[in-house]
Each structure stands twice: as C-alpha cells, then as structure tokens.
Amino acid sequence: xxxxxxxxxxxxTRSVKWDMRSTMFQSEEVLPMWVADMDFxxxxxxxxxxxxxxxxxxxxxxxxxxxVKNPIINWVSKRHNWEIDKDWLSFSPGVVASLHMAVQAxxxxxxxxxxxxxxxxxxxSVIESHDRNVVKNPLQQKNNYYHIDFEDFEEKLKQGVSAxxxxxxxxxxxxxxxxxxxxxxxxxxxxxxxxxxxxxxHADLIYPxxxxxxxxxxxxxxxxxxxTFMSPSKTFNLAGLQASYIITSxxxxxxxxxxxxxxxxxxMLNTMGNTALExxxxxxxxxxxxxxxxxxxxxxxxxxxxxxxTDVFSVTRPEGTYLLWIDCSKLQLDxxxxxxxxxxxxxxxxxxxxxxxxEGELFMRMNIxxxxxxxxxxxxxxxxxxxxx
Length: 389
What we know:
Helix 4 (about 65-80) packs across helix 12, helix 5 (about 95-105) packs parallel to helix 6 and helix 7 (about 150-160) packs parallel to helix 8. The strands form four sheets. A seven-stranded mixed β-sheet has the order 2-10-9-8-7-3-4, with helices on both faces. A four-stranded antiparallel β-sheet has the order 11-12-15-14, covered by helices on one side. It starts with 15 loop residues before the first helix and ends with a helix. The chain is α/β, with parallel strands linked by helices. The chain has helices at about 15-20, 20-25, 45-55, 65-80, 95-105, 120-130, 150-160, 180-190, 220-225, 235, 250-265, 270-285, 285-310, 335-345, 370-385, and strands at about 30, 90, 110-115, 135, 140, 145, 165, 195-200, 225-230, 245, 315, 325, 350, 350, 365. The longest helix has 25 residues, at about 285-310. The chain contains 15 helices and 15 strands.
C-alpha cells in the first residue's frame, strides 16, 4: 500500500483533528476533515532522523547551526527561486507565534492592520489580542474565482495602516498570487510606508501550472519592507514539532524582531523540531512531489463529485494548499443551520466558513490531505446528506 493510501489510526494520540471531535462537533461519529494537518506519515527520512536522535536520549538546549540553515537556503533557492543569506534567518516555534511577535515589535496599540478576507482565523487574534484594529480588504469573487480589489486596498492604506498581513498562498481560498498582483500590493505598501508581514507557510503546496513567488524576492526595495514567515510544518506534516523560520533581509528590522523574539522566549527550536526541519529539507523533496500528485487527484475528485452529484455545492478551484473552499449557499441555510447540517446530517467535520470572516458565512472549508478511502467516505456523506434531505 502506498505512502498516501494507508489509513493510520490517529485516535488517542492527542490529535487535535481526531481527539477533539466531541468538543468541536458534538459527536464521535463525525469524520474530521477540518484542521490543517495531514493524515499522512511524514517522510521516512524525517522519522528515521527523529528516531536516531531519540536513541541518544539527552535533550538539552539545542543550537541552530549551519547544518539546519543551509538546507533552508538550498530549499528556498531550488523550490522558490529566491537567494537568501543565512544571516537573514530567525527561528520560532510557529508562524502564528512569529506574527504575534512581529505585531508587538512593529506596531502600537490602536494601530490599523490590513488583512484580505475571508482569511486564516488566527490573523484576527494576532491583531485584536494586542489591541490593534483589523482593517479588511475583502477579496472579490467573480465566476468562482477571487480577485484583489486594489481600489479598496489603496483606500484602506490611505486611511492609515501600519502593517499588512499577506496570506500567500491564501488560506482558505487557495489562491496563488500572480506576480502582477504581488507587485501591485508591494507598490502600494511602499507608497504608503506599510510593513508587509507575509505568511507563506503553504508555499510548497502548489498545483501544476502555478508558481509561488515569495513577495520579498521581487526586489531589494520590497524585501526591505517585508518580513517572510515560512515553515516545513504544512509541507511535511510536522506541525506538532513546532519549527518555523523567518526571513528578514533588512538588518535593522531583523534586529528589532529578534529582540522581540528573545524578549518572549521564542527565539529557538526544540530538539526534535530542529532535527525534523533539517531532515525534511534535505531528503523530503521526492515525498513532496508524490504528495502533490495525490493532492491534485484528490482535488479533482472532490470537485467533480460534489458538482456533478449535487446541485448545491460550488467549489473554488484552489491553485495551492490542500484546502477546498466550498460555497454552500444553495442549501439556503444560515451559518448555524449549515454547521448543524454538516455535523448531524452529513457527519463530516469541516471548518465553518464564517470563522474566516463574514464573507465566508455560507462556505465550509474541507481538508483533502487524507487517504483516498477517507476522502471518498467524506464526499459520499456530503452527497448522501444533500440528496436525502
């Protein structure tokens, strides 16, 4: 059985996705297809490296040396055509933690921070928990495809914005921003002196025909105004190991950020996260390429089945990520009733679109990074629930 076909029992492993079903969905019968981790084992090279490190049996304070930094530099160069310097790297347990640090380091209470909605839910708490204000630049949906409203984008910046949190590729809608879109967002941020915090955690999960371009790779001028957040966690299913890195080319900006990371005690990696990060970037490429083929097949399957076998679901075709954004408005249910329908009638645990902003009120987000058998069962449950109502 192939790497991505085998079903692994994740129950009783303290899995957020599987062991929180009763809390999240009020039922153990719900098939969880929500939180963004995968039901696949990490690359064998990563597991071997972790086992070998565990054999040593001592888990003291761990340095991040060139053996960790060089694979990152090589990975970013090969996969994203961006040449970075090892001195630009900082480290933290996760991208969300890093965003919290950046908001504290570079903005003040009462400042406005721009996001493009509907958007990854922690962006809201990253802003609001530090007494900053969320300013929305709602993405515009046309013919089941999302576009940036640049007139609104500039108008919001003109009114006074300290920072812009970019989601690239975008979660939950799956857009991989084109070069022209990135250039225009950067141009406007430079024009209005807005710091760009670019969350690029899904950068490696890109479908054929699309290319992820790190915003900071566009020019030195743009890089100087951008902080980029990356991690192998989504790419190789390592979220629980808590390892991420930050790329900042501007020395003064980097020093300010590093001081904030140090102040909060978030400036190092745990021993196992350090080990996994190195192994994933050194030896995980073949695994990733196979994963992307599987995700492409999964994406096409879900979209064709939901749209052919029902008359109510419309799926935004993602250009990246393993997440599907499903328009459920034709069910003619409000957000509470829609959630109840998914939990009780379909028994499929999806993320409620309303959590990503009001613009997602009648949407659901589905995670397709699971074995095909699980995927088909989830799709069948959705189709049966709709056709039997």
